[in-house]
Amino acid sequence: MAPSIVQAAFSLLFAGSALATSDLVYAPLENRYATVLDKRVIPTKLPGTWAYQGCYSEGANRALGGQMYANATGMTTESCIAFCDSQGAYFAGTEYSSECYCGNKIDSTSLLSPAADCSMTCSGNTTQTCGGPSRISVFWNGSNPPPGPSTNPGTGGFGFYGCYTEGATGRCLENMATVLAPMTVGLCVQACKTAGYSMAGIEYASECWCGNAISNGAIVATGGISECNMLCKGNSSEYCGAGDRLDVYKLGYEGVSSSSVASSSTRASSSTSRPVTVVSTTSRSSTSTRVSSSSSRTSSTSTRASSSSSRASSSTSRASSSSTRASSSSSRASSSSSRASTASSTSTRVSSSSSRVSSTAATASSTVLAIKPVVGAYGFQGCYTEGVGVRALSGATYVDYVGMTLEICASKCAGTTYFGVEYGGECYCGNTLDATSVLTANQLECSFTCPGDKYEYCGAGNRLQLYKLGSAASSSSVSVPTGSRSSTSTRITTTSSPSSTAGPAGYIYYGCQTEGTGVRALGAAASASDLMTIEMCQASCATYTYFGVEYGRECYCGNSLAASSVAAPATDCNVPCMGNTAQKCGAGNRLDVYVKNGTAVPTKPTGTSSVASTSTSTPLASGLPAGWVSDGCYSEGFGGRALQNQQPDSQANSVQVCINTCKNLGYKVAGMEYGTQCFCDNFLYNGAAPVAATSCNMACPGNPSQTCGAGDFLNVYHTGNLTTYKAPASQSTDLPGQWVYQGCYSDNVNDNRALFWQSILTTNNTATSCLGLCQKYGFMAAGMEYGDECFCGDESVRAASGSVKVAEAECQVKCSGDNNYYCGGGSRLSYYRWIGGEPLNVWAEPTGINAGSYEFLIGGVVVPLITTTGINNKVVFMEKSGTGAPNTTGTYELDLTVLNDFSKAWRPLHVKSDIFCSAGITLPDKKGRQLNIGGWAGPSTYGVRLYTPDGSDGVWGTNDWQENVNEVTLLEGRWYPSAMVMANGSVLVLGGEVGSNSAPTPSCEILPPPAGGYAKYLDWLDRTDPDNLYPFMFVLPSGGIFVVYYNEARIIDEKTFDTVKTLPNMPGSVVNFLAGRTYPLEGTGVMLPQYPPYSAPVTVLVCGGSANGAAYAIDNCVSTQPEVAAPEWTIERMPSQRVMSCICALPDGTYLILNGAKEGVAGFGLAQDPNYNAVLYDPSKPINQRMSIMATTIVARLYHSEALLLPDGRVLVSGSNPEDGVHPEEYRVEVFNPPYALTAAAAPSFTIVNKDWTYGAAIPITAKIPSGSFTTIKASMMAAVSSTHGNSMGQRTLFLTITCTGAPATASCTLTAPPSAHVAPPGWYQIFVLDNGKPSKSNWIRVGGAIADAAGIGSWPNTASFTAPGLGAVGT
Hints:
The chain has 15 helices and 88 strands.
């Protein structure tokens, strides 16, 4: 669905073809530079990815409206590109030899022109061309498409010809083409080209029309391409016409030439430079009246402009910085524009200059838009053209498109003879006015208001508002010639209300009349002028009995009024005459009519102007099928057809024919349009609404006594109930939760997504579904785009991306799940925020010591893949063979008490096989042996390795790893298995693969192995391989074992290992429910703290993970209570994505989440974008408020990184073995200091004698409590852990009942041991005493020794290569 960069960035289709031909052949004769084009060219090699886009005309706005600069002696293509590149602009352009312009889009009013038009020598390089007069050589950076949809400049040899109205008496292009796929410009052009036509037009987003000429009085749309504003059904990055409007393409058309483009800035569309001759189809006159594209339509169907047909009024407001649809400063932008509406008529086509007062009436303090006669010492000279090939004023230049005023320009040019303002925001100075700059024939062409003062005029495109020092022009010198009607005319202004009750000499006022039905009220002759007055029209109609003025600027003559023209309320005629605002000149579909004095006139017929009426002045059809009734005349839908199923056009069409066609097809609603068209459906869509019956005025060709709609209007009939659906809009009511619609916002600004997470909902995207999805995953900002895309993210990210609010009309793609609503558009978001109520997430951002800190601990000797804190308070590091330093022994023990002596700190240990991706735990025997099982390949995968920690602080031990695959092995080879001590003291080994990237080992086995061995096949491991490796396992207090693997979880029986309960699948990421949590989609998991009396259901927390493929990591944690009757998963969003994450349980009951990457999966070179932040998770806080963003490291910790609790409460952070060619093999060892480790408060301490506990026992200790208060004392019990691949094997946190008496310095305290092996499985634990949250150094104890002895752990294995510690109490 992403927009094509070719379409969005205006491809080289035209420019390439223009450059491939001989520019000299096609250069206009008046182009004085054409003869040297062979020497001045566009450079073939441009900087970086920049590419030439072609020669463009300047339009109603600057082609490139960003930064600019001028260099009279040094301008080159390269220097302009470098300047615009430094400004972050997508486009650069050179013009007038010495000017450089930048921008992020090519303005919609700028047209591709023949290459020969850009032929002026660059001032800094005579071998290059730098645009021309009102022509700009445009270059694109090759990377960034302009945001938002745009008009396709052409394809398949067809060039964009303009936005055209439908014909007055028939179709603009008369042959409909069938395009089976969803419509695009390319598909329509190809269909017409294949059928042999030279022109193609796309209408209503999905209709294709072909022809060889513009027919039936169709003209360029008065609003230009802004009126062709519907997105193509098959490509929402480009436009495909609109209702009654076609985007027209012509074979071989390459844009307008400099000779054919009017220099007037009033051109509002891409084709208004091509005047259209409109010939009346009545006997109005034998001569045609030439009407420019900005004038009104004088055809017999101009009644289309009634209040209900002003469809274009809604589209002309669609101006925005990215839609490239409407001029931000054109004449349509003023409050009295041609689209201004009134209470009775919404299509009063008064131009922006209708409220303009003349220079003789303006004052410096005027609050009326007017020409200023005097600005400081300067007097107004008139509206002047730019020079031919040169600037009219060649001195200094200043640009301010935001705040420019005449006064600012005058101050910038102080002391020069002239100043002039152009394009609204450009100021030019000079002491001479170039001879080629002349007073414009039409002084109204300087029509841009000053951006810094809306009551001043600041020139226009290629037009200067010119002022001269110490001189003011007379009103006659700037008046406008009007041909034979009068020699001069000066616009008259007044502050009183306009009037039409008085007639000119010899005429009396007849009244306000409607237009005729299907004919002009006065059809003999017509004219139009932007200086229209009552007197002017009277002079034009001197030979006729009647004359009438309409639309402020149109004049009609006749000897009789059409019978269908009826009296309308006087208030309907409310548009001021453009040449005299004191007079009224009709309105849309309304004429102020005058009749010669003394003429015998018929009694005036009366009527109503109500547009709500559905009555008709034409005969109603009779003989309808049973049950069918007429609903009157309806407007077409906004943004789509009122009736969705169009039947083939027919010259036999009539009401009965169309109804019977629809009836036979099973439809309940029928509509006739344009005489020959028949539409069917069961409902009316897109806000179709009843209008005046006179709007449907085209006769049915099959029965001329009936009406069959008109352009953009339908005669509607139905049977049963008639239901009308409103026009689509972005949903703003009935939203879930606290969601509030914010508006239509831009997206992809500078390639930055406004919202990060994207889901494609091809059939069910709606505000409800999208917002519900984002809400579920903790996002408080959401939006829909392109109809089927749902985005979730954060308001802060959106604001930083450059996304801004744009015109609502730019979000006009219907939701894939509900066509009654819009879901954004091309690079446009229908944007929503969660406002009020309970927030969906709150992340604390502590500072200072409250954020913790990373600290370098010591340089390493290996890159570990497993770390284990031994009961001797030393840490064992085990490495993968082959990727670390050479000649290592594979495993080392770190003594934390001699860190300042590197050689003494690291004691070498030895293994005999490759422990790559093995598992480890601490056994519950009396010596706290460390068990390592499995490995990479061959015999290693069967490996069973044992190490008995020994030595003391600063003193090396003598024990080493024991291993003999010929004596002790696993039953099955296992790579990436997990291990866990069960409640009976035995070791459960689960899962893995046969060997390196090999078949799964979908089974479990027991150590020590029972007689004859034991292994059980587990189908759920087989089914989910390879995404279930290193599963998380937890003994449940209520019995059973909880297993988390891939995106699934279940409870298995601890004796039979059969499934007891299957939980719902874990939620994944907001964009992928199949995302997983175990290797290789590696997340991390823990059990949350248990508290006395240990009766509450335990909670298991799983954080991070990823999905297969090039996926972003998961940015949430999920938790559940597996023991409850119907467990569900709770989602808590993390501050960032994280895969290959680690989690470390802290003695204060919190959890530190750290390490990993934001994208990819676990493995060598499979992840990127390291996550350097730590996050602290505090389960004592409310859900969605538990996470704090902590300190940041400088070390990337990726694949094979670990986090491990140390005896002093700090976290040892180690490893990273990415093998990605970017990040190093990481030997550095760090510690993370939690906030409690950084406080100045003294830590408590304690001594303990009994280090071999029985369940439920009272354990005495002697403690020193620095705070002196026993009320804040806590004791925690932290199980021994081996950390690898995000799995803290053995992890468990319990808080103990503690009571203290005596002096705080030597307090006698009692700890109560956990009650059972299911609450605290047999094994070794660190005991911490906490005073006001600050932990002591730990003491190691064992609990459940008798159970472990019963399992035979201490006497296993009984072979020659292993030394078992034996059974019995600790210390024996």
